[in-house]
Amino acid sequence: MVERTRFDDSDCPVARSVDSIGDWWSLLIVRDAFDGSRRFGEFQRSLGVAKNILATRLRNLVAAGVLEIAPASDGSAYHEYVLTPKGKGLFPVIVALRQWGEQNLFSSGESHSEMVDRANGRPVRALEVYAADGRRLDADDTTVNKVS
After folding, report:
1. Are the C-beta atoms of residues 69 and 62 closer than 8 Å to each other?
2. Gap between the Cα atoms of 120 and 84, Å rounded
3. C-alpha span between 99 and 114 (Å, rounded)
4. 67 and which of 81, 93, 105, 146 could share a cystine (Cβ 3.0–4.6 Å)?
5. Which pairing describes strands 67-71 and 79-83: parallel, antiparallel, or unpaired?
6. What is the CA radius of gyration of the chain?
7. Shortest CA distance to 10 belongs to which of 22, 28, 26?
């Protein structure tokens, strides 16, 4: 079996993030957790992923501190997977992926799910990146200072 390349000791935050939660199943599990899924069966039904793959991804997300295992909210003997504060911090990442997909992967007029504000039912505004002084930034306005 080929060993997966690891980036957990990289000096790049993007590489470490991808190493921690970057495979598609893990991101879709996090998406479903934001949408209210909490139990193994709920994730499995939503994703259609093989149980062994789901079990591994859930275990890895718990180990990474993205999810935690909690007693079932209905008092049953089951347990649930709940987003931790670290996991909730992935919300802008999921929104950014959703918005990028809406803009780039659907034909004009093609139907797709839509994220809306619970308070008023209106679509969520596009994410933007701003400088400390309030200027809107794009990729041409930034650089990464490498660790020396």
Report:
1. yes
2. 26
3. 9
4. 81
5. antiparallel
6. 18
7. 22
Report d(CA 121, CA 21) in Å as an integer: 30
pLDDT of residue 6: 74
Cβ-contact 123, 103 below 8 angstroms: no
Q: What is the pLDDT of residue 28?
A: 96
At 33, the amino acid letter reads A
Return the pLDDT at 95: 96
Q: d(Cα 87, Cα 29) in Å, to the nearest integer?
A: 11
Amino acid at the residue 94: I
What is the per-residue DSSP string for the chain? -PPPP--TT-S-HHHHHHHHH-SHHHHHHHHHHHTT--SHHHHHHHH---HHHHHHHHHHHHHTTSEEEEE-TTSSS-EEEEE-HHHHTTHHHHHHHHHHHHHHSS-TT------B-TTT-PBPPPP-EE-TTS-EE-GGG-------
Q: Which residues of the chain have pLDDT under 50?
A: none
